[in-house]
Structures are given as C-alpha cells and as structure tokens.
Amino acid sequence: MKPKVAFICVHNSCRSQMAEALGRLFASDVFDSYSAGTETKPQINQDAVRIIKDMYEVDMNEEHTSKLLTDIPEVDIVVKMGCNVVCPFLPAKHTEDWGLEDPTGKGYEEFIKIAKTIEEKIKDLSKRIKNNEINLKE
C-alpha cells in the first residue's frame, strides 16, 4: 500500500496545492498526494495555477479545489508548508515542516522559486519513503 501524504497550510490555495500537483506528477508511484487547510478559498491561487501550467504543463484548475482537513482521507505523512501562524494539526505517523514562504501577492519569480523548491522536496520525500528512512510502522 502506498502511503498517503497530506500537504497542509491554512488556506489550501497556493503552496499546498502546488505540492499536491507536483506530488502527483513526480511521486505518484511512491505516495498518494492530498492537500488541505483549516480554511478554504473560493478558488485556488491563479498565479500558482499559471506557474504549474507553464513549468509542468499541469492544469490545477481541472482537478484541484480548496479543501478542509476533514475533506481528505486519513494520512500517513503530514507535510506542513510553513505557517507563520499556527499550522493546522493532522494526526500522522510522520510530520515535517517545509517552512516555505507564501508567494501570494509576490512576483512571478517568487512563484517559480517556490515551485522549484517544492519539486526538490517532493523528490527528496519520495526517495526517503522508498529508502524506508521514514518510519511508517505503527
């Protein structure tokens, strides 16, 4: 069984959505990706959508919506995107915080930087899961 990974932040409209999209793109053979937050936005951040479409040819508008923590299944791994406020809590066997700054309202370059960082971190997480570096045993 593939582990389930939840990417969480408060609004579930930008970084966590990008992480879910890139998790599906680069690591779907290793884990299932979900994203959620404690509050939702009527639509996901369109700058994030544009960047992911430009860089990876993935259209997040097609299958992504802003979701609450209660909207996703129970997960094995929680990745906090980096919240300056209190990050949402979700029970999991492993939790880590990527400490990413929210690019919302910043320029295109900032979004590209965040997307590339998320891509690297997704690949690293995938590798650690494959190598059993993350303990997912009960």
TrEMBL record:
<dbReference type="InterPro" id="IPR023485">
    <property type="entry name" value="Ptyr_pPase"/>
</dbReference>
<dbReference type="Pfam" id="PF01451">
    <property type="entry name" value="LMWPc"/>
</dbReference>
<keyword id="KW-0175">Coiled coil</keyword>
<feature type="domain" description="Phosphotyrosine protein phosphatase I">
    <location>
        <begin position="3"/>
        <end position="128"/>
    </location>
</feature>
<feature type="coiled-coil region">
    <location>
        <begin position="108"/>
        <end position="135"/>
    </location>
</feature>
<protein>
    <submittedName>
        <fullName>Arsenate reductase ArsC</fullName>
    </submittedName>
</protein>
